[in-house]
Design goal:
With 242 residues, the chain is an alpha/beta fold. The protein folds into two domains: 102 residues, ATPase, nucleotide binding domain (Nucleotidyltransferase, domain 5); 109 residues, ATPase, nucleotide binding domain (Nucleotidyltransferase, domain 5, 2-Layer Sandwich). The chain contains seven helices and 14 strands. It has a five-stranded mixed β-sheet with strand order 3-2-1-4-7. The protein is globular.
Length: 242
């Protein structure tokens, strides 16, 4: 388990309002951070590995570890790598089949006795990334490929571009970690995927996030930028503003 010592900036209360425990559930790591009501960090990031067999029970035990490391919070935001409807997980391709129709929001609220909001992880990161003008697309490059679409700052929920058919497979097969490991950086289909999504959505701006952005070596178009991986946590407060 990897942890980081909290700095003096972490606190039991925040002068600006309720403290949010923001969680990012990923295929390789479970991460958490305390945020004040404006979205500013009140703690350093904490991380534990995603269980080798990431069933709901195993992942919840890992999240319990994070909650013990960051115990002083008033509410919870969680980003999950799959389709979320009314706090229920419907897909989790990079986790485990048992996540199908799992009531994650209610389960966390029951365990921690706090109000909880759960959303797709790319939606959470996108809430912190977008500027709120025109059509903005967010792609997160990690174990899989997450996606979120915004129009004038409003989220268009339910987008799962990673599993959309492309070149007889899916975007995730080429742009996710499987594609990166197989094709290597020299043949990674990133620029081709960017061009394809621009034709599909006519976006004005594209943001690339996730851990694999550090492996990008190609020159990106001027209306495409890499955003910090921490936005998957920093966007947690946005769930309480919508």
């Amino acid at each position: 388990m990897t942890t980081q010592k909290l700095t003096s900036k972490s606190a039991t209360t925040s002068d600006s309002g309720p403290v949010t425990l923001s969680i990012d559930i990923g295929g390789s790591g479970l991460k958490a951070m305390l945020l004040d009501a404006t979205g500013k960090p009140l703690s350093e990031r904490q991380r534990v590995p995603t269980p080798a067999v990431p069933t709901p029970l195993a992942v919840l035990k890992g999240l319990d570890q994070l909650a013990e490391l960051l115990p002083s919070f008033d509410r919870v935001s969680a980003g999950f790598p799959g389709v979320i409807k009314h706090g229920i997980t419907y897909t989790a391709v990079n986790l485990h089949p048992r996540w199908m129709k799992f009531p994650l929001e209610d389960e966390l609220a029951k365990r921690w006795k706090k109000p909880v909001r759960v959303a797709n992880d790319a939606d959470v990161a996108g809430g912190a990334a977008v500027k709120g003008y025109g059509v903005e697309l967010v792609l997160t490059l990690g174990t899989g490929m997450g996606s979120a679409l915004f129009t004038d700052g409003r989220l268009m929920p339910g987008l799962e571009l990673g599993h959309h058919p492309w070149k007889k497979k899916t975007y995730e097969d080429f742009i996710g970690r499987r594609g990166l490991d197989k094709l290597r950086k020299a043949r990674w289909n990133l620029l081709e995927a960017i061009a394809e999504t621009e034709k599909l959505f006519n976006w004005d701006y594209l943001y690339l996030g996730g851990g694999n952005t550090k492996k990008i070596t190609v020159k990106l178009p001027k209306n495409v930028s890499v955003v910090p991986n921490e936005l998957g946590l920093l966007g947690g407060v946005v769930l309480w503003k919508q």
